[in-house]
Amino acid sequence: MSSLALYPEDEKLPRNERLVFDLYIITAVALFVLMMLLGLSMRLTQATWAGIGPKLFYEILTMHGAGMVGTMGLVTLAVMWFFLRKYVHLHLWAFLTNYVLFMLGALAIIISIFIGGYAGMWTFLYPLPVHSMGIGSVNAAALFFIGYLLIGVGFLLFYLDAAAAIIRKFGNLGRAMGLQWLFGGTIDQSHPKAVVASTMVIIANSLGILAGAVVLVMCLINAYFPAVVLNALVVKNLIYWFGHMFINATIYMGVIAVYELLPRYSGRPYAVSRVFLWAWAVSCVFVIIVFPHHLLMDYAQPRWLAIIGQVVSWGAGFPVFLVTAYGVLTNIYRSGLRWKMPSRLMVLAVFGWAAGIVPAILDGTIVVNTLMHNTQWVPGHFHFYLLLGVLPMALAMMYHVIGSRAQSSDDAAGDKLSLPLYIIGGLVFALAFLAAGKASVARRFATHLPEWVPYDQAGSIGAILIILGMLFFSVRIIAGLLKTPTDVGSAHPGG
Amino acid sequence: MITENEVWVIALVGMGLVALGFIYVISQVGKSSDEERAKRAYKTSNVLRRWLFLILLVIFAGVSYASLWHFPLPPQQAPLAAKQIVNVIGHQWSWEFSTNQVEAGVLVEFRVTSADVNHGFAIYAPDGRIVVQTQAMPGYTNKILYTFDRPGTYMVRCLEYCGLAHHVMEAPINVVAIRGPST
User: Which of A56, A404, B19, B96 could make an SS bond with B89 (beta carbons 3.0 to 4.6 A apart)?
Assistant: First the structure.
């Protein structure tokens, strides 16, 4: 169980660790702002308030998708590292190698898109990347694949190092997840939730990344040897198996911040329970097998896969509602929670996750998917739980760390404005997408029908508010990290 | 058959309930709680969680039964008994139909495939709402069964991103009133 001290001694970062951690956070924050600006440019274009041509629009859309998913992965991996290292011995080289490979991969992706003209979306559905009607080159598509492979190798290295460290400490991954206590026995109350969540992510996301690596290599071979024809449906299954797990892993890595930090602000222990262990065991299985809900409109899929997609989508709501959201609410209920930026962001994050999966679960229902698939309902629900769920989890950790370095958990005056701006903007932005989905507005269209434009205009206003809030967060966080380290006492070690 | 408006209302109710739960607890955060009250609250929360679990389980079972018992997608291997058949091929960036005229009130089978990349075959009603869709995928044929209840000009739009002109890849389907027996 984690300590209730606000800034415990074992969270203090030695110099080199601190340098690499700061690199992660500053890079992620800068990338988030950049990717948000790209997103805004697309919404403004759809709203007829800006005039980006289709070619650049689809390049930006590809960059925005790959960039946001990648950055979410990068920053939540930093969350996982920051807390997991307290319980097991992680090697700094693995954490640093992941950063270097991520940056190399990102560079490859940027070149492939803005120089090579690759615009096959972050999902690179076969055979579009090599069948762009002469818009992007085969080399550009290959460079994009290589960029993904570099990023995937980095993540995998980090996970392998973390898995080895966990096995050294706990014996095996099952024991780390607390499986030995599922059906009985006295649960070790000091068993860290961060270890349970990290182990689940290692298992699920390693499988997803391996599936991604397989399909990327297949696509690379096809790109240069077109006679090797791929099965489009098999490729699609592998892509969504990889894509779904990668983006979902960001939630499960990000929520570690809530498990670790919330009790320190509420003053109430938040120990593991049998229900909690069951929830993570079940979630591990569910996140691995739920991906067919992305292929509900591929009628050629075996029927049983579609049924799994729907049933597991609905089942996945149980752990979120009954364990994480409910657990957080009972932890803070009449707790005298200290309302500081980290705690505000954590409560927002769990709300955003729990509320955002409602439209997601609905879309995982076959009859609903027949109407909503690939409409703006889809970006509606994933922006809801990424913007108002996952990103606030990571921001909570960042604010906590800069608080620890400043030896003060006091909020800045500007926080009183930036957080409401971000929340209102996020709600307007996501609800505009969902309302547009209700009106059958297609997603991924460079230009919109006149009757669709009001939704785009509302969404643009929401996006501007989010960016204003995020810009303030970024300045606060980067300034807080770059501040000259003070000679901190043991009561308030710098993070 | 569920409509977009119903989905929207269900989503808002669901998200609203989540929001109410958070608002209630947030309103209680600052209130004091001694050890005895905290213990009582903990017990109550466990009872409430069991009830919530049961409620969610009933909803889960009910929705699964109602939406899957009669499987909502037509069988893809068996022959379908539609009187009208439309073969559809998606191309970058146009639709090819064996016919673009069908009769209202009579079952239509769409056999949808692609000649190049993945496309999305979505039929928009004259009121601008999607009525049915499937994917158009190279190497596979997806079969839709649909009965148009009203005559009019329906629009097929591509809903799977397929390249530079994806957003203009559309074509009309004319749904005409059923012809009476010739005299």
Answer: B96
